[in-house]
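Service request form, structural biology core

Requester: graduate student, group of Dr. S.
Request type: structure prediction, single chain
Budget code: on file
Notes: please return the result as structure tokens.

Sequence provided:
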Amino acid sequence: MKKCIRLVLIVLIFLLECSSGINLYNTSSDGQSNNTINAYSMAERLSFNEVWAYLMKGEEDKLTGEEKITDLCYFSATVNGKGQITGDYEPPAIKAENRIRHHIVIAILDNYALTHFILHPDFQVRKSFIRDICRISQKFDGVQIDFESVASSDAQYFFSFLSELRANLDKGKVVSIALPARRSRIADAYDYPSVAALVDRIIIMAYDQHWYGSNPGPIAGLSWCREVGEFAKSFIPQQKLIMGLPLYGRCWQDKNFNKSMHYTHIEQVMQTSNIQPQYDPENGAYFEYEEKIKVRVYFNDERALYERLKLYSSMSIDNVAFWRIGQGPKGMWQGISTKSL
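Core staff response, request fulfilled:
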């Protein structure tokens, strides 16, 4: 039955193009089709229950009012070295026809020592830290925890922290968490089923498949996204699962010049490039030269975003999220729809 419906839709689209001149494909400046599908012309077929998006604090001017979202994650509250949240936070103003839930993000990205200091009950910081979260959450609909540096040995402390946080927050506050993308189970602080029992929503950061320290490759390859999504579905309840999509790109160069050099290599470069070094007493000897490099860039354009949204929709994943507002293609929100709008 589904195949018949799909065939009928394809025929209708073909007739529509022929009769009305509507072009569902991108065209170049000379009017020639380049055979790449215009994602926004087809995106109405996709619908999600919830569409979340991140907004970086200080980038409020990136909001256009065109964002078709249900939830906005405000990134992020400042955590100092004493395990205290400093400052006051207000939900950013956003023009929207629907009511948007605002979530304040509490992030510790790369400080294992600070995370341990906050989570371990022996240090007596945890209770005051939870009070700080409750204080700044008063004007928000929810709180999101984004602790990306929790040691495996602190897993049980992390789980009990999430439980204690939820118990202390006002009733009705949404507790969400950002977790790394995975394709197999690991016994650590980010164990999907352990965390799923403690929070209302889990955003899977389905990006950085390749990162700045890896070989060049896609940020979120389609087959990789499918594997990550299938694994997440097997442990996280459907209503709690949110698949994250990247709006940024990443580049790699084929040569890395930021490194130490042996003296023999320095001499070889000077000889090959016919360079005479300069000298001053303060800095010693130095020279400059030019060399051609090749840069490869991977990013998600409209087509790539649409294909990943279509993939998640076909997997019966009801919720998606975007990192982050201001980084994606212009007009991308035209192709997003939610069942609640």
